[in-house]
Amino acid sequence: MASCGLDFGTSNTTLGVAGVGDLRLLPLDGARPTLPSAVFFDFESGAVTVGQAAIDGYVSGVEGRLMRSIKSALGTGLIDADTALRSGRITFREVIATFLRAAKERAEAQAGAELDEVVLGRPVHFVDGDAAADAAAEEALGAIARTLGFRNISFQFEPIAAALDYEQQVDAEELALIADIGGGTSDFSIVRIGPERRGRADRAADILANDGIRIGGTDFDRDLSLATAMPLLGYGSPMKRNGLNAPNSPFLDLATWSKINFLYTAKSLAELRRLKQDSAAPELIERLVGVVEHRLGHALAMEVERTKIALSDAPQAALTLDWGDDRLARPVEVAELNDATGALAGRIGARVRACLAEAGTPADRIDALFLTGGSTQLPQVRSAILAELPGARVVEGNIFGSVGLGLTVEAARRYGRA
After folding, report:
1. Cα 126 to the center of its chain, rounded Å
2. Between vectors from CA 99 to CA 14 and to CA 404, what angle results, nearest 5°?
3. HSE of 300, CA atoms in CB hemisphere, 13 A
4. Is 328 domain-assigned?
5. What integer pLDDT is reported at residue 326 of this predicted model?
6. Handedness of CA 363, 366, 370, 373 (dihedral sign)
7. 126 lies in some domain
8. Tens-place pLDDT, residues 364-375
9. Which of 37, 146, 183, 392 has its Cα between 20 and 30 A from that of 196?
10. Torsion 295-72-343-220 (CA) sign
């Protein structure tokens, strides 16, 4: 029997255990500790794969159903909604359980022990401004964990976990603002840390503020897609009736990771074909029909994500849409990314201000800004955060591992055994 820290992320997942004198993240995807949060149901063989193998299976062209950003269902009505497989249907709750069961089994094989106690990471808010939905999300994740065989289950805020990881490397007391910007949420904590505080059983007095917002990397993907890719498929295009444009809903679903699969129904496809008949730009809607008919929505989303990442350190990147005989390459300027996602970055910066206000702490009192989560690599996000803390020392955390390591620290403290 052993305890662990489990960071189930919108984009990636890690799991760590505490040994004698060390903390470590276990390899979950080959030799890599980071497991992409994806599940692929192979309709040809009936196999179910997770992680990079799931993405590779989809990209290879095997007929099946890819599920990504499954954490986003927590706290929404999607959690118990179902989606069609080749035979039968499956709920998002069952998909999450399938993914986490595979992660747990891989970790147990690496640890050589059953994992029965867990500290699960959670965002400060699963759902913005809805305490009941937020509590329901935590309860749903805890219930899923119980079905996997975890006997003792507890939670810790993800930015607090990142603070516990950062604290392992400091040699003097600091007041730190922790920024954890992931695929689905942006979370912040202001925490007193230091070598003399590490061993304290109760750290409540050291936590001055927690705040967060349900904005993450997948939201940047969505807004960039709507600005660049979706117009090529008819988003905003005119209908034959004067003054009307194509309805937004199918494009919003296609641009949103967690909703792509809902377009893959006979009813949706029939509606899109009727839309083409009523369109004044039927050649654009025909592209949309082709993407849905051939179930290329996730491939399109991956290309938008790749373009976003490329624009993190280049002024321009090519967005390539490729299906069958129709191949389009559209150059995307970094200014377009900034214009499309500027409002999101601004809302993230506003949460930093709110966190400082909650703590009653002026910005110049913050010693260190600790950054973790893949979306801290987006220049616009980083700039929005740094603008609120111009004097703080910037510390780069383990982008994908700090939260998992901190949850492992917490598991060792709470459960007292590896």
Report:
1. 12
2. 15
3. 31
4. no
5. 66
6. negative
7. yes
8. 999 999 999 999
9. 392
10. negative
What DSSP string runs through 242-306? TT-B--SHHHHHHHSGGGGGGG-SHHHHHHHHHHHHHBS-HHHHHHHHHHHHTT-HHHHHHHHHH
Regarding beta strands 368-372 and 326-333, do their DSSP bridges make them parallel or antiparallel, or are they unpaired?
unpaired
Does 363 reside within a domain? no
CA 110, CA 115: separation in Å to the nearest integer?
A: 11
Separation of alpha carbons 177 and 284, rounded Å: 47
CA distance 346 to 354: 12
Q: Are strands 89-91 and 64-68 parallel, antiparallel or unpaired?
A: unpaired
Q: What is the DSSP string of 9-65?
A: -SSEEEEEEEETTEEEEPP-BTTBS-EESEEEEETTT--EEETHHHHHHHHTT-SEE
Predicted local distance difference test score (pLDDT) of residue 325: 57
Overall size of the chain counted in residues? 418
**Whole-number Cα distances in Å, 291 to 225, 238, 321:** 14, 20, 10
The amino acid at residue 130 is D
Which residue in the block uniquely carries the two structure tokens 């919003």?
Answer: 252
In the chain, how many domains are there? 1
Distance (Å, whole) CA 342 – CA 189 = 23
- Domain assignment present for residue 294? The answer is no
pTM for the whole structure: 0.92
Q: Domain containing 82: what range?
A: 2-171+398-415
Instruction: Please write the tens of the pLDDT for every residue from 237-289.
Output: 999 988 899 999 999 999 999 899 889 999 999 999 999 999 999 999 999 99
Residue segments in the chain with a per-residue pLDDT below the cut of 70: 20-21, 323-326, 417-418
CATH of the domain at 23: 3.30.420.40
